[in-house]
Automatic annotation (TrEMBL):
Origin superkingdom: Bacteria
Family as reported in the entry's similarity comment: Belongs to the UPRTase family.
One term of GO molecular function: magnesium ion binding
Record text on activity regulation: Allosterically activated by GTP.
GO cellular component: cytoplasm
Keyword Methyltransferase: no
Protein name, UniProt field: Uracil phosphoribosyltransferase
EC number: 2.4.2.9
One Pfam assignment: UPRTase
Stated role: Catalyzes the conversion of uracil and 5-phospho-alpha-D-ribose 1-diphosphate (PRPP) to UMP and diphosphate.
Pathway named in the protein's UniProt entry: Pyrimidine metabolism; UMP biosynthesis via salvage pathway; UMP from uracil: step 1/1
Protein encoded by which gene: upp
Gene3D superfamilies (alphabetical): 3.40.50.2020
Binding site for 5-phospho-alpha-D-ribose 1-diphosphate: R79, R104, D131, P132, M133, L134, A135, T136, G137, G138, S139, D200
Amino acid sequence: MSKVTIMDHPLIQHKIGIMRVKTTSTKEFRDLVSEVAMLICYEATRELPLADIEIETPLMKTTVKEIAGKKLCIVPILRAGLHMADGILNLIPNAKVGHVGLYRNEETLEPVEYFCKLPADSGDREIFVVDPMLATGGSAIAAINLLKKRGISKIHFLCLIAAPEGVKKFTEAHPDVDIFIGALDERLNDKGYILPGLGDAGDRIYGTK
Ligand code: PRP
Ligand code: URA
């Protein structure tokens, strides 16, 4: 079963609180998406494997740790995931980046795929799929289906806000994928929006609508 981690760090809770306020400006909202993504990523990378390497300090030879293997790949779900990826790249500047384009059909709430471009060696990397919102779960499930179809298996999913309905559907669909959630909200409304939520993440990041 997926490991579900809900963040309890005061900085994350404080920043998500500001994001929920409807008068928070586009610029501040965008900055907060990056900052909170960075903080969640700090927790999500806690168990990455390390390897010993020999180095020389100015004084002597010694052994230090480095992240083992082929390192990481961040996969934002377009559009809103892009700003989470930017934040995470501040922390892990050498990560590769893949993109999955999906939008929710507003009537059926089903995800519609329009783009998928991944680094050629993604199958060897630890993959962090990022999207601010896990609402019905349809978009995140579809994005991870796309990755798995391409032979990718080491996948983690990071979001800022999730609805219980989406978490349930996601963990049933992808029990092998761990989830890191900034805040777990109450429920979905009849239009598939998270309550209390923060509204439409893409519109708030880009100032559309
Ligand atoms: C939002 C959000 C997720 C999706 C979540 O994207 O960023 O991708 O909805 O909803 P779900 O869990 O019910 O699938 P949206 O479809 O609005 O596209 P956008 O990022 O292009 O605005
Ligand atoms: N997508 C969003 O951007 N917000 C929601 O509350 C649900 C889906």
